[in-house]
Amino acid sequence: PQPHHHHHDYGGFASLPTDVLISILCRSPASDHKSLSHACKAFRATIDSDAYKGERASSGWAEVSTHLLSGEELYDEHYPNGPEDVSLSDCDVGEDATEEQRDIALLFKKARKKNEEIRDFGYYSDLGQLDQDYGYCDITVNVQVDDKCCGYITLVLLPRGTNHNYPFHDATDAHSGEMQSVGWTLCDSVGRLKVRSIKDAELISGEAGKGGFLLIKAVRISEAYHQMDCTNIVTEAVRLALSDPKLEGKWTMVTAISDYEVYMTKEEVECQRKSRSDRVNATEKERTKQRFWECALLDTKTLLRMGFRQIPETVSEKQSPYWLFALPSFLKDPIKSFEEVDRAPLIESPDLPPQAVGVDGELLEIVKEKSNSMRQIQDMVNSINFELDEEKQTNSDEFSGLEQQIAETRILIDAGKPSHVSDRTWRQMVAGVERSEEILTINRAAIEENIRIRRDRIRNMIDTKMPDLVEEFKAQVTALVRKGGSIRKSFAIHCCSRLRITQFIDFLIDMVPPEERAQALCSLDACGITPLHCVVLGTPEVRERDEYIDFVERLLGMGADTNVKSARGVTPIGQYRGTMSGRFDFCNVFGMRSGDEPAGWRPFHRKMEGLLRPSQGETDADVEAKCAALDNDLDPDESGDDEEEDAWMDGEDENGDDGIMEVDEENDGSNDRDDEDE
Higher pLDDT residue, 312 or 582? Predict the structure, then answer.
């Protein structure tokens, strides 16, 4: 209920105890606060106290309002002294101008420059700060409680338009890391929705996949108004901000990630920062961690009170931030009570095993360390081989051209000196050919020596370094297993699969008791994925396609199950599709080709789809994860390419040589395998 705005006589209450006085005064309208503060010191002290603000907030009597700052207001905040580097010139004022006239002229000149920067250069708009390249707006909304400014809310609005031609991922990348994570998770490269739960909530199909995309970036409101974890003020303030008349019709979907800082006090935030160091004891760390998640959960329930809904597809690990969304229609319903949303269960990830600790933790660290070392050696071998193959082709072309020129000249010389050529010119011609032959021989020898050195380096890695690393790995793993370490409980197979270390995987499986092997190959780890999911987490490069397929086939041969769902509801085929979609989105955003044309990946894609297809059928999440860049380009009736593709999948290219078909390859920077933990 809203308080009645009329005058009250509070003069007889000044001598009451503070708590009683607070309970009485908190019912007074904000318009009376100024006169009450002037009435007596007791009233002023009461109204200015945090206890009074907290009571106003929790009892529902506090009056909340918001104000969306225009571009001009933001400009004034950023430049309180006006535009910089503005001075008067001789043509602005006359020589006999007074000091007052000069001051007025300077003010007018600053005002003109301010208007130019706001309007002409387009840095600011009615919604706040405007990006010139992608047209997104950084919006700031001030929050007032009882007519006093007590905080702010920041939003980001991306104008996707209605024709699906807005460079959505380019814009999210340009804005911030958080915006990039949100944008790439929920939408494709032009802003269309990828998430089924949001699509299902649309009143009109496709409405949330076009138009304005809004992100709640931060909410910061004075601690006095959320004492005892009261969510009333934050709930009402954010709801008012999203319903601001300036934003009406400007957005079709808003999303937010639960933020612990909304409800944490400054002292708690400082404790959270300090808890990352080793100087804080375990008990204090655990208490701080518990408070961290309590505050994140409070922010989630605040959003639920407004009408937001959870995004199930983003649920993965335990105690990961909650992702929520709302459509404009959601905000038309009344704000829910805290008790109502508190009773409603949140979607949580399935119960996952704990992180490996003790001997199992030591075992996992050994597998990580040795797998990363082996991965680095393999990558170096692959890289050198790739460079040598390219150089061999390049040098062959160059030498062929030079040899042909020399041979043609040598034929002329062998035919004898023509009569019209002088002796001197003839001698120079013969000497030049001999010099060219000598230089060609020297260059060829130098290149062959360089190639020999690098080939020897590869042989040394393969014949010495890799076997030594394998033996060292086996010895350390065996010692830890004898101490009680478990290959299954340490998730060593998951880690090895993530980096595709074939030299280790057979040994690790042999170290697992036969009755545990199926579980070791098919169970979820602490991150909610199986070894098969781990293999396809990494983004393959063209020259590594065989390696991925071989490792998947190896796991399947050992008994890995393609039907097991991850914590996010995808089987390995859905994980693979998400990885490949991300690859093509990345290349589209940064204008990269580098062998990533869909046609160049079709044989690999067909093979992986066939290997990973779940026998019990795909999940909804698997279907949603389909890679449009590959599936839309796939045409089984194309006879021209099928023969070539089938030859590649049989391990033989069109020339009858082993290996994959040639595709130009450049490093796109998107490979995420380097030194990553599973």
Answer: 312
pLDDT in tens, 87-138: 777 677 777 778 888 788 878 888 888 777 776 666 788 899 889 889 999 9
Rounded to an integer, the average pLDDT of 210-229 is: 94
Dist CA 496 CA 220 (whole Å): 43
Gap between the terminal Cα atoms of the chain: 54
Is residue 236 within 8 Å of residue 64, measured between CB atoms?
yes
Task: Tell me the C-alpha distance between 533 and 537, whole Å.
Answer: 6
Report d(CA 467, CA 475) in Å as an integer: 12
CB atoms closer than 10 angstroms to residue 661:
15
Residues 188-201 have a mean pLDDT of 88
Q: Which of the pair, 671 or 536, is modelled with greater confidence?
A: 536
Q: Which positions ≥6 away from 370 have C-beta within 8 Å?
A: 469, 472, 473, 476, 504
Phi, psi for residue 151 in degrees, rounded to 5 = 165, -170
Report the share of the chain in percent with pLDDT over 90. 41
> Quick one: CA torsion of 313, 317, 318, 320, rounded to 10 degrees?
-70
Contact 298, 261 (CB under 8 A): no
* Residue 666, pLDDT score: 38
**Residue with token string 């005002």:** 111
DSSP string, 315-359: --STTPPPEEEE-GGGGGSPPPPHHHHHHSPPP-PPP-PPPP-HH
* β pairing state of 64-68 and 137-145: antiparallel
What would the pLDDT profile of 38-55 be if each residue is shown by its tens digit?
888 888 888 899 999 999
Give 468's contacts (C-beta < 8 A, 6+ positions apart).
Answer: none
Rounded distance, CA 451 to CA 445, Å? 10
In three-state secondary structure terms, 47 is helix
Closest residue by Cα to residue 661 from 603, 576, 592: 603
Q: Give the type of residue at 300.
A: T
Q: Which two tokens stand for residue 657?
A: 């040589």
pLDDT, position 9: 53
The strand pair at 124-125 and 253-257 is best described as: unpaired
Q: Of the ranges 32-46, 142-156, 543-557, which is most confident?
A: 142-156
Give the span between the Cα atoms of 493 and 380, in whole angstroms: 23
Distances (CA, A) of 581 to 187, 209, 594: 11, 18, 16
